[in-house]
Specification:
Radius of gyration: 20 Å
Order of helices and strands: EEEHEEEHEEEEHHEHEHEHEHEHEHEHE
Strand content: 25-35%
Largest sheet: 7 strands, mixed
Mean pLDDT: 96
Shape: globular
Distance between the termini: 15 Å
Low-confidence stretches: none
């Protein structure tokens, strides 16, 4: 048996429970978790903003050590450190054929599988976003694990599985920030902190962090922000004031709220680019009029998993880490046990801190 954080039903609190985890079958890998990040997407699963089959073991950002492998698995072996990939590409759908693996139509197909059984009553449990990382151990499909790059500590590597790939990709793949451009990042959580670092790495001349909390300024500046704006109804005006009244070249929205998306768009210059990373609910409606779309010539685009291919981008991120350009420690504001996840969710709702990291 292993201990895990189980979501019994949408809208219900997480429960820490013992589960019976099967041995890996053909094409599967068993992993002992070293750490798992508490991401806003996990919170979105609990409240129904995102939907997967329940009851489920949540957690999708993690890293650990391979315990054993099933038949046919050759790219990792027992004892290897691995990063969990919660959105593996199938390689055969239309998006994958186009090389857009982050849009794979079958990436979350594994969430419908039976992952484990609750030890107390034998009831079936699903694997959340494929990998069920809020547990001491997990069993995943072989394409859900990637070797930890050399020189990256195993606990830190957990952050590569979502926050860092998403923030880095938003800057380098979606917005395609060029050296000397100005960037505003809305939301200073785990993904926002990674985005700030990515903007600095890209050579942005000015990196403006925006958040509702004044207390996050130190976090933002440690991650690379040159300026900090406390969100208000005047945010777009303040950002134009910091950019010779033009607005930033690029805004990255990491919140997923209609008002924040609209403000991010308004804070860019004429011809500017806004990338939306935050996952909002269907009730978050963003409106534009036809004239302003024509006049401002701005671009608004969505961004899934940083538009990344983890197999390609993890080695690039590892090189930035080894060179000291990317500091994963600046993302983590608390280290917790499984029992601390509900409190970490509460902090997210309250807008406190960066990334909480479950350390096993």
């Amino acid at each position: 048996m292993v201990r895990a954080a189980v979501l019994p039903a949408v809208g219900s609190p997480l429960e820490i429970a013992d589960i019976d985890l099967p041995e890996p079958g053909p094409g599967q890998v068993r992993v002992r978790l070293a750490a798992a990040g508490v991401c806003h997407s996990d919170l979105s699963l609990t409240n129904g903003t995102m939907r997967v089959p329940v009851p489920a073991v949540l957690g999708h950002e993690g890293a650990g050590t391979v315990v054993s492998v099933g038949d046919g698995v050759t790219h990792v072996a027992a004892g290897d450190g691995v990063v969990l990939n919660w959105a593996p590409s199938c390689g055969s759908c239309h998006a994958c054929a186009l090389g857009e693996v982050w849009l794979c139509a079958n990436a979350l197909a594994g969430a419908a599988n039976i992952h484990a059984k609750r030890a107390s009553d034998g009831s079936d449990l699903h694997p959340g976003l494929n990998v069920a990382a809020f547990a001491e151990e997990t069993v995943v499909a072989a394409n859900c694990v990637l070797p930890v790059p050399d020189g990256v500590p195993l606990i830190d590597a957990a952050l590569l599985g979502c926050a860092v790939l998403t923030g880095y990709g938003a800057v380098h793949h979606s917005a395609r920030v060029r050296e000397g451009e100005t960037v505003a990042v809305y939301g200073v959580g785990g993904v926002g902190l990674a985005t700030l670092q990515a903007a600095r790495i890209a050579g942005a001349s000015k990196v403006i962090a925006v958040d509702v909390s004044p207390e996050k300024e130190a976090l933002a500046r440690a991650a690379g922000a040159t300026d900090y704006v406390v969100a208000s109804e005047n945010t777009a005006r303040e950002i134009r004031g910091l950019t010779d009244k033009q607005g930033v070249d690029v805004a990255v929205e990491c919140v997923g709220r209609a008002v924040t998306i609209r403000t991010a768009w308004e804070s860019t210059r004429r011809g500017g680019r806004t990338t939306v990373v935050g996952i909002g609910g269907k009730d978050q409606q963003v409106t534009f009029n036809a004239l302003e779309i024509f006049h401002w010539g701005r671009t608004l685009s969505g961004c899934v998993y940083g538009n990344c291919d983890p197999a390609v981008d993890l080695p690039v991120l590892a090189e930035h880490i080894r060179a000291g350009r990317l500091d994963l420690s600046t993302l983590v504001t608390e280290r917790i046990a499984l029992e601390g996840i509900p409190a970490a969710f509460d902090n997210m709702v309250a807008g406190k801190g960066g990334r909480a990291l479950v350390v096993f």
